[in-house]
């Protein structure tokens, strides 16, 4: 800055002399020296202005670090570590500078109609943090390091080797009706007995732990944290605990197991957000077997993408394969794990940006949200191809794993709600017996509000449940809606307000399908007031509250062993 100002002063001084020279010349002839000097002045002034405006975005190292953590926690999932955009738009500095501070502040504070939560309005971040983030996103994003096999292996720990583990359950509880509950902001997993509702064990897990899946036998729980740390919990232990752990990447959201006949409990796989890669693990010890990068080219324009993240993963029942959804490139990879050190990969062109999804009731078709294009891609796991792309008619479909039931008019259907719209799209899934409805939206049902994340039902239930934790209206964040499967056209059957704090998020049935568990996700800081969270157990027959499991630290996802193993939703 100082150098630029000196340069500017020198040029101005030189120009003053130039003006005198000019006066002595013939008036008609423009002086070429002065012309050149004017250009130099313009250039220097522009550079000085740029430097001045850039100083507005300067953050102290402490502020930068604070923003890096907030960005990782709240923004990277949708916008990407490199901020190239995915579910949310591109946040690279040039794009951001064009928007201006006020607009950026409003986006972060109030959110957008397209599904971005109002982080400030919801009380997640303060005014001061909002202002810092406005500056942060106008700076270049820090590029995190790579995480190769040496580092993966270095993080691997077997806490209890298989030969030292119990040979049968050391308790009388029904393992099939146990629940693994994510205590998100505590970085823990609670194991809860579904019959007695006792919290049997609370186990440390990864940072901002995200989901769990179960081994095919139902004995092991595999969790994944946002820091890429996978933990393996043995439910046969008197007090279930971690038997192995490993860090497969630095940022991750998905994990699954081998489910095909003959491969039960043999393997696991972790999908990485950063670095963009997946790691195949031994199912009994988590020993890493193979690491594969997902770097590549977008399916349609074939442009290189530096951050194609692994979103949802499901295990095929038709072949020893995982279905990996590569978010940014819009490809579905069928990964053949029959020879895990030499995995086969079939790449299927689908749509952008692939996120979450689940099986239809036959488990032949996998339906996954392509949320940038408001579509659901349907993958046929038997024929190993794209069966259809369904336009949902809503903004940002977000099914979780979706919900399956038999519609009285259209036969077997699967449904998704939306983050950016107050509609549920019901899609026909039976091309054999109901070809006219297959892969079409057969019903569009009004929901209470936009900001829906999950939908759930059970084959034994007559209801479909829908949450709206990201609603712009605070009352809907703690309310769930219930629909009657036999009369979806009537819209919401019952609206149930569950709490006066936090967010009501994610439903899960018990094994019998007669209870629905719903999390109230509060603030970790409100634990002393008893408002960090709880689970509300609903009676699925009466739609009344059956009981509450209190004093849980920020519960989000809940996974019943039997339903997760058998993909019941
Ligand atoms: Fe999730 C599933 C990614 C925010 C709770 N979430 C998924 C899946 C993906 C994903 C790819 C599918 C996993 C699978 O099936 O293998 N989630 C992301 C994000 O990128 C995002 C949008 C932003 C982020 O920064 O992480 C995000 N997710 C959230 C939340 O804010 C939730 C509500 C609480 C939390 O963990 O922070 C949340 N996501 C869940 C849950 C599931 C999930 C409970 C599993 C649903 C199921 O029933 O299977």
UniProtKB/TrEMBL annotation:
<dbReference type="InterPro" id="IPR009056">
    <property type="entry name" value="Cyt_c-like_dom"/>
</dbReference>
<feature type="domain" description="Cytochrome c">
    <location>
        <begin position="48"/>
        <end position="141"/>
    </location>
</feature>
<dbReference type="GO" id="GO:0046872">
    <property type="term" value="F:metal ion binding"/>
</dbReference>
<dbReference type="Pfam" id="PF13442">
    <property type="entry name" value="Cytochrome_CBB3"/>
</dbReference>
<feature type="signal peptide">
    <location>
        <begin position="1"/>
        <end position="23"/>
    </location>
</feature>
<dbReference type="InterPro" id="IPR051200">
    <property type="entry name" value="Host-pathogen_enzymatic-act"/>
</dbReference>
<dbReference type="InterPro" id="IPR003143">
    <property type="entry name" value="Cyt_cd1_C_sf"/>
</dbReference>
<dbReference type="GO" id="GO:0020037">
    <property type="term" value="F:heme binding"/>
</dbReference>
<keyword id="KW-0408">Iron</keyword>
<dbReference type="GO" id="GO:0009055">
    <property type="term" value="F:electron transfer activity"/>
</dbReference>
<keyword id="KW-0349">Heme</keyword>
<keyword id="KW-0479">Metal-binding</keyword>
<dbReference type="InterPro" id="IPR036909">
    <property type="entry name" value="Cyt_c-like_dom_sf"/>
</dbReference>
<dbReference type="Pfam" id="PF02239">
    <property type="entry name" value="Cytochrom_D1"/>
</dbReference>
<protein>
    <submittedName>
        <fullName>Cytochrome cd1-type nitrite reductase</fullName>
    </submittedName>
</protein>
<dbReference type="InterPro" id="IPR011048">
    <property type="entry name" value="Haem_d1_sf"/>
</dbReference>
<keyword id="KW-0732">Signal</keyword>
């Amino acid at each position: 800055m100082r150098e630029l100002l000196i340069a500017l002063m020198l040029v101005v001084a030189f120009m003053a002399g130039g003006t005198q020279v000019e006066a002595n010349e013939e008036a008609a002839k423009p002086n070429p020296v002065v012309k050149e000097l004017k250009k130099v002045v313009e250039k220097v002034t522009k550079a000085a202005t740029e430097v001045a405006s850039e100083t507005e975005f300067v953050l102290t190292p402490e502020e930068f670090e604070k923003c890096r953590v907030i960005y990782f926690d709240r923004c990277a999932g949708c916008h990407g570590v490199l901020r190239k955009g995915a579910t949310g738009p591109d946040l690279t500095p040039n794009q951001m500078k064009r928007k201006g501070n006020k607009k950026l502040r409003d986006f972060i504070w109030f959110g957008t109609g397209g599904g971005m939560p109002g982080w400030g309005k919801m009380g997640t971040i303060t005014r001061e943090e909002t202002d810092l983030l406005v500056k942060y996103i106008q700076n270049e994003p820090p590029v995190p390091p790579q995480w190769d096999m040496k580092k993966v292996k270095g993080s691997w720990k077997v806490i209890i080797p298989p030969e030292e583990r119990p040979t049968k359950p050391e308790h009388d509880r029904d393992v099939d009706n146990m629940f693994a509950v994510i205590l998100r902001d505590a970085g823990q997993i609670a194991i809860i007995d579904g019959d007695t509702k006792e919290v049997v064990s609370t186990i440390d897990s990864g940072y901002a732990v995200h989901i769990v899946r179960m081994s095919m036998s139902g004995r092991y729980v595999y969790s994944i944290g946002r820091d890429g740390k996978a933990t393996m919990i043995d439910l046969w232990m008197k007090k279930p605990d971690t038997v192995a752990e490993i860090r497969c990447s630095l940022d991750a959201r998905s994990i699954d197991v081998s489910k095909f006949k003959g491969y039960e409990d043999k393997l696991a796989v972790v999908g990485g957000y950063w670095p963009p890669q997946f790691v195949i693990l031994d199912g009994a010890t988590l020993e890493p077997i193979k690491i594969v990068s997902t770097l590549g080219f977008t399916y349609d324009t074939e442009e290189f993408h530096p951050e194609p993240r692994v979103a949802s993963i499901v295990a095929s029942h038709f072949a020893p394969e995982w279905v990996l959804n590569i978010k940014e490139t819009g490809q579905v990879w069928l990964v053949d794990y029959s020879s895990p050190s030499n995995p086969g990969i079939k790449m299927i062109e689908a749509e952008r940006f692939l996120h979450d999804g689940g099986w239809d009731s036959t488990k032949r078709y996998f339906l996954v949200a392509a949320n940038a294009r408001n579509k659901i891609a349907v993958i046929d796991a038997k024929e190993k191809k794209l069966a259809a792309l369904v336009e949902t008619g809503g903004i940002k479909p977000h099914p979780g794993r979706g919900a399956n039931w038999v519609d009285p008019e259209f036969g077997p259907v699967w449904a998704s709600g939306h983050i950016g719209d107050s509609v549920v799209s019901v899609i026909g899934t039976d091309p054999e017996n109901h070809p006219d409805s297959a892969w079409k939206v057969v019903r569009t049902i009004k929901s209470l509000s936009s900001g829906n994340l999950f939908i759930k039902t059970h084959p034994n239930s007559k209801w479909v449940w829908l949450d709206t934790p990201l609603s712009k209206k605070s009352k809907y964040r703690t309310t769930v809606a219930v629909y009657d499967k036999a009369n979806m056209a009537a819209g919401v059957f019952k609206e149930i307000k569950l709490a006066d704090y936090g967010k009501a998020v994610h439903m899960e049935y018990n094994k019998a399908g007669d209870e629905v568990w719903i999390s109230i996700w509060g603030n970790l800081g409100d634990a002393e007031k008893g408002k960090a969270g709880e689970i509300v157990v609903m009676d699925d027959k009466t739609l009344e509250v059956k009981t509450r499991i209190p004093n849980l630290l920020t519960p989000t996802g809940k996974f019943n062993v039997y339903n997760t193993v058998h993909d019941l939703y």
